[in-house]
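Query form — protein ACT domain-containing protein ACR

QUESTION: What is the three-dimensional structure of this chain?
INPUT:
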Amino acid sequence: MDVSMSFSQDVDDEYEKLIRRMNPPRVVIDNDSCKNATVIRVDSANEYGILLEVVQILTDLNLTITKAYISSDGGWFMDVFNVTDQDGNKVTDEVVLDYIQKSLGPEACFSSSMRTVGVIPSTDSTVIELTGCDRPGLLSELTAVLTHLKCSVLNAEVWTHNTRAAAVMQVTDDSTGCAISDPERLSRIKNLLRNVLKGSNTPREAKTVVSQGEVHTDRRLHQMMFEDRDYEHRVVDDDSSIQDERQRPDVCVDNWLDKDYSVVTVRCKDRPKLLFDTVCTLTDMQYVVFHGSVDTDGTEAYQEYYVRHIDGSPVKSEAEKQRVIQCLEAAIKRRVSEGLKLELCTTDRVGLLSNVTRIFRENSLTVTRAEVKTKGGKALNTFYVSDASGYSIDAKTLDSIRQTIGQTILKVKNNPEEQQQRQKSPSQESPTRFLFGGLFKSKSFVNFGLVRSYS
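ANSWER: The structure tokens for ACT domain-containing protein ACR are given below.
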């Protein structure tokens, strides 16, 4: 069975290569026809998943897609994207333009049927993927255990949504600075981290995956949370129900019976990577986008897709329709950054992430999202934090944290007075609202026996 499947995949690969040689992709970059954006047109033989890969390449360059026109009905893929740089200007950097040409043009090598999307073999680091139920102090516990196990976190991204949490961490051995290859040690790391994830006494499964190489972090986080069914979990919170409904994306699914399409429309607040998030989710759900349009008007975004399932059928039932709506809403909301934005820049050192998250925990701050990067010996970390009790973050608390970590090292990127935190009594708190971060004001994990109990 495995041999026949492998043979079939090889035949598919050779066929796709033949089609590509006969119809090489063509990319036209136009900086003249549009007043305020660079227009990129991509023509190529159509393959399942190619739309996601094109959007992924543009998004990874930190380009903002302001408009898009999608057409891939039949055997040809023809898309037009209006893009700007992070400052809202046309893309004029020759290095970036050349990269787009090489990545999307005849030299490009799109993955076959999404089997290798975003995966680049490497022996420089070990990738740890974590999925589980969120709870107070979880990020601090996980990073403390990694420090205890002599692992350095080079890069990491953490998402939380609907009481669920997912993280992709790139780690190395403290002593060698290389990937961890010892099978016994890898097994120990995996088991101890899983024990930490299980500590919340939830019936939901905790997952830990350890592998060599690099992954496309955003792509994997969407896949992990989709597989974890975070879209099924809704936080019940009467105090914020009205505000939550106002912020909820407007997603509709209707069938166009004459053409056997399902029409998916999305209206929500615009933000970076929004198109990637929605296309990624439709692809993970095995829907093919045949036609579509994307437009932004100020702070609002509108997306319309004409889709069919990979089996050729439109949405067949009300249950399937609701699942599509729930999954797209979850995909949009996962990346929404709630709370106060803090940026940390300092010389990297062993245990830095563990120490910083411990300080947050000691000051009753929870981390709703985190981006950890190491470049040239420097740690460049971004945290979105909120007060564990639901109150606005006190300015004195921020000052205390910055004095402990370093005034020039940790910077506040938005005014805490402008944060629209929910005001409610601590006695009314729901424990499910605590995200990554901490509540308990312990001075070390030794006091709780956390490292000892999981080691």
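ADDITIONAL NOTE: Residues 111-121, 416-455 have pLDDT under 50 and may be disordered.
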